[in-house]
Amino acid sequence: MNNFVVKGKIVDILQREIYSGSVHIKEGKIEKIVPEDVEEKNYIMPGFTDSHVHIESSMLTPQNFGWLTVSHGTVAVVTDPHEIANVMGKKGINFMMDNGKKSPLKLFFTVPSCVPATPFDVSGDLVTSADVKKMLETGKFVGLSEMMNVPGVLFKDSEVLAKLQSAKDCGVPVDGHAPGLSGDALLKYIKSGITNDHECSDLKEAEEKLSAGMKIIIREGSAARNYEALKPLIKTSSDEVMFCTDDSHPDDIIHLGHIDKIVRRAVADGYDLFDVMKIACINPVKYYNLKVGTLQKGDPADFIVVKDLHDFKVQQNYINGIKVFDASFPEKRECSVADSTVCINKFNHNRIVASELKKEVNKCTTVISLTDGELLTAPYEYHPEKPLKNMESDIKNDILKIVYINRYRNGKPQVSFIKGFNLKKGAIASSVSHDSHNILSVGCSDKDITKAVNRLIEEKGGLTVSIEGKTHALPLPVGGIMSDKKGEEVAARYSELCDYVRQMGCSLRAPFMTLSFMSLVVIPEIKIGEKGLFSYSKFNWLK
Ligand SMILES: [Fe+2]
Fold this sequence. Notes:
The protein folds into two domains: 47-289, TIM Barrel; 343-541, no CATH class. α3 (129-137) packs parallel to α5 and α11 (259-268) packs antiparallel against α12. By secondary structure, the protein is an alpha/beta fold. The strands form four sheets. Strands 16, 17, 18, 19, 20, 21, 22, 23 and 24 form a nine-stranded mixed β-sheet that branches. The N and C termini lie far apart (65 Å). Fe (ii) ion binds at residues 52, 54, 80, 146, 246.
């Protein structure tokens, strides 16, 4: 291992000072830091840590996600592999950990706590309390992942209690997931041992959780964006907050950044530089007890070199003393391993025929109504002009067919309608659909939906578009939710597909992402799933 010296302006976040000097690296660790006059003007600082991310949402393997994010100054992530766990259970989690060894990033895994997300979901596999115990006892995980089963905690479900107990026994934190929870219910939830939350979208909600003892993770990703609402906490509670992305698409990482994008914004908003850097670089390391260096003598040599402390343009990124990114040679990286160990999957559905999508509509019908940029949906009562033996769509009124197909076994497609996509022609389909990752499709005609779905089945997962007799795809052969290609390729193909969807009339900011949340029944109000439309407020299927 190389011993070397890096010179510049050293940013000591813990001591809140910046001084000229040299950092001496020996065998992957910081041997010493010497204050001295140097000519170098770049800043040397600890790297960024994403405190909660589902890597699968980037549609990249951990390896390729790592090579993309190190260029943005990330040195570590705390990752919950619950997307792949819903597809393939423990085998999927093992895949993420094995593949992660090829990533330049330091990856710290948490054990998924809610697979499947609800008893109404039909996923490809499950993670039981016995599985959780076994995994935590290996010592390879830094926590128990987001506990989405709030009723299970409040009403003391035995499986949930067993999972919480395992985390307690192993001395690791339990991540929360409690949007809107307050009052006595919140206190009960916290008392069960859950110590953080990344689902706050409102400052008051976050302040209540903070005063009850929780850490708050400010989330700014591709799906949910809470920075604007929660940013005052940077000033008032800098020791108690962290940053995360939760879900990030590859094009967003390339064009907007990763944790660096939140840091840039917070500094531009005038928040104290050291507070912002502490939140981005130090707090997650302390909270999760991560083996990540914070630029102190004896630490692992994990640090970044940036041009300034406004744009944080990364010049170099070092992890364990190895230079994993150099802006002078940005293309020099190991990526995209399309070997047989990468292409694990579970996809067992035969092609469909258009006649399976027939839906009679003869009176007022409830349809899903969506709003761009929101995960929440509402019921909309649609009155057809005349009874129809099979309604394909009512394009004039933006009522399109939405189809759900279980991808793990053959069965009848569930067919309903949705308002808000505004497609004027064609269809789209996806096997990225939270959290069970079954097949969802929206389209103007049964023929196009059939073509989009069948291309998806042919690819054994991915995103597809059917337009004017042709289909286009971003194949996702890894669990039907990730590509084996490198970030730039996936981002470019994803952008191409989104362009097709815009040409089809859709004005949604991220149509595939919107579609992917249409079967997530833990977010209100109307969703589609295994037995048709689901009502969150009734927490049951609509008859
Ligand atoms: Fe999450």
